[in-house]
Amino acid sequence: MQANNTLPEVIFDGKVENILIEGINILKLVQDNKDIKIKSIDLVGADFNIYQYKKTVEDTTKAPIITNLYDRIKKDINSIEIGNINIVKGKMSYDPAGKLDKKKPFWKFAEIDLKFKDLLVDSTSASDTTRFIYSKEFKTAIRNFKGIMGNDMYTFSVEKCDYDHKSSYLEIANLKMTPNASHAAFYRPKNHAVSEATIDVPFLQVKGIRSVDIINKGLVKAKSISIRGAKFGIYKDKSFGDPPDSKNGSYPNQTIVNLPFALDIRELLIKKSTLVYTEKGFNTKKEGVLTFGNINGTMTNITNVRSLVRQNPWSELNAKATFQGGSPMTARLAFDLRDDKGRYEADATLTGLKAEQINPVIKNLGMAETESFNLKSLNYTSKGDAKTATGSMELIYSDLKVNIFQKDEETKKLEEKKVISFLANLIKVRTDNLKDKDEVKAVNIVSERPFFKGFFALIWFNIFDCTTAIAFKGKAPDILKKGRTLEGIPGGGVKKASPEEKKALEDKADQQKKDDKKDAKDKAATQKKVDKKIRNDASDKAKVDKKKAEMKLKEDRKAEEMKKEGDKKVEK
Q1: Beta 10-15 vs 414-416: how paired, if at all?
Q2: In a 3-state reduction of DSSP, which class is residue 329?
Q3: Domain count across the chain
Q4: 129: helix, strand or coil
Q5: How far is CA 332 from CA 299, 318, 347, 379, in A?
Q6: Is 550 part of any domain?
Q7: Quick check: helix, strand or coil at residue 418?
Q8: Within a 10 A sphere around the Cβ of 258, how many other Cβ atoms?
Q9: Which is it for strands 79-95 and 135-149: parallel, antiparallel or unpaired?
């Protein structure tokens, strides 16, 4: 059948060790099978293999549209009613790629327990939004799930997953995603720099998730998602060079808005987690590591539902962490969900950073090192969009000495250029920048995003440009800014805002304030109309209720009078 392309799109095989059916009237079922009623069904040791087979030729035959299970059975059966269905110690493998390979299932569930309560299949249950898979109550317990994803590049696994439909609660333990190959093997077929990710989440909890909304409305909705003790890793080998692919439209807010499904996550909580970013430098061929430890943060209003965006157009992340092993830092990122140009705001603070904490990163990635450095405090703010970032910074530090490195073309090793380093420290480097002592601040530093770089690269460029604007007495060495252009292709750059650009930025800010003011005014006017309607409706209802009360009072009085008249007649 596979050779003739006549297999159905979904096929399966399987076995069940034990089946126990209670509360079924066999005689009635034989005589009248229009209404099937069963008290309970227990399946123990079920093992199923499901294959999503893809046909090689498009099937042009027309068939009636079947939307649900009842449509399939209504010609012969009026209803199916089952009190309980229990599947215990089940197993399942699923191959959505049509490989039909039992040895290497795409997804594999080592153990599944499923419980369905009050299952009803009839003309009304399919549209009953309180039911999931036709059941009033549904619980699942999955143990040791494993799947292959990302063109066979990653293995995704879950040790434990429990879901309760009635309480809208999902809990996952030990969720992991790991590459299936070494760094070299991962990059070999790509031959350019891409992000290789690892995820290790010991605990994930979702509250207020409604599976019926996902199925019936295509809406992924949750009140809160909590992640605790997670470790996220990103590895990027820049020695292959950046791909000349456009990153336009990839900002977080643009990605959320352009999702192919509706999303509404009220709150994402991250507790005691870690992010490690490792990059292999293009020039040095060495790795630099940035570590953000003990991350505790909250992201709110993650949605692309238009009505919710109109109510609150900003999604905001607020987080605290330690940087490079102990320096306290805070960060705020806010994304405008209305704006298709990727408008954002960012703030960050950092205190207590020493040279030894950042030297391995700067030397391996930036072709320089800080011989000595004592950062007391950093305060950074920026606003921007998909094209540029405009940032300002206050940077208080002392005892800064910089060594500049270049690669020896013969030995291919990094060597310190002592003359350049000496001149840089003597002429260009600002050794100290102390508060109230000729403090230099970076104001309205504009950085452009190269088309092949994403949002976080732009933020990093702007932070770097603000830092060099303070730390250097003039233009920073060009070698520190490598990586912002592709050879032969125009890229981004850095510049201080000219008077004209400052005025344009101020005009843009003023216009944004006017727009925000207008939005607030429109929102207030709309709310005023809503409040007025509520008051009018309440007033109208009060009038109607008053009129009804008056009519009832008249009727009661009339009834009382009629009763009195009747009593008088009886007395006579």
Answers
A1: unpaired
A2: strand
A3: 1
A4: coil
A5: 10, 5, 5, 12
A6: yes
A7: helix
A8: 11
A9: unpaired
In this structure, what token pair is assigned to residue 135?
A: 């059941």
Residue 278 makes CB contacts below 8 A (sequence gap 6+) with 233, 234, 235, 236, 287, 288, 289, 290
Q: Which amino acid is at 14?
A: G
pLDDT in tens, 198-242: 999 999 999 999 887 887 778 899 999 999 999 999 998 877 666
Cα–Cα distance list, 534 to 247, 539, 564 (Å): 47, 8, 44
Helix (H) or strand (E) holding 70: helix 69-73
| CB of 201 closer than 8 Å to CB of 227 | yes
Evaluate whether residue 149 is within a structural domain: no
d(CA 46, CA 15): 6
Q: Which residues of the chain have pLDDT under 50?
A: 55-66, 100, 102-103, 105, 412, 414-427, 487-497, 502
- Give the pair of three-digit tokens for residue 306: 């238009």
CA angle 335, 341, 343 (to 5 degrees): 30
Q: What are the helix (H) ranges across 181-304? A: 183-187, 211-217, 252-257
Distance CA 266, CA 104 (A): 38
Q: Which domain holds residue 552?
A: 517-572
Q: Which residue has the tokens 């216009």?
A: 511
Strand partners, 382: 346, 391
What is the spatial distance between Cα 284 and Cα 359, in angstroms, rounded to a whole number?
14
Supply 164's token pair. Answer: 């309760």
- Work out the burial of residue 568: count CB atoms within 10 Å of its CB; fewer than 13 is exposed, 13-18 middle, 19 or more buried: exposed
Burial class (CB in 10 A: 0-12, 13-18, 19+), 368: buried
Q: What is the pLDDT of residue 109?
A: 84
Give the H/E segment covering residue 191: none
**What distance in Å separates the CA atoms of residue 481 and residue 491, rounded to the nearest whole number?**
12
In a domain, 288, yes or no: no
What is d(CA 473, CA 376) in angstroms, rounded to the nearest whole number?
A: 20
Residue 161 tokens, joined? 């997953």
Q: How many CB atoms lie within 10 A of CB 240?
A: 16
**Considering only CA atoms, which of 404, 341, 401, 347 is closest in space to residue 379?**
347
Using DSSP, how many helices (H) and how many strands (E) does the chain show?
A: 10, 23
pLDDT tens per residue, range 453-503: 889 989 989 998 999 899 888 777 666 666 665 543 333 333 344 566 546
Residue 274 near residue 291 (C-beta atoms within 8 A)? yes
Query: Distance (Å, rounded) from C-alpha 342 to C-alpha 249?
Result: 8
Q: Decide if 115 is inside a domain.
A: no
How far is Cα 208 from Cα 203, in angstroms, rounded to an integer? 17
Contact 501, 440 (CB under 8 A): no
Say whether pTM exceeds 0.85. no
DSSP state of 275: E
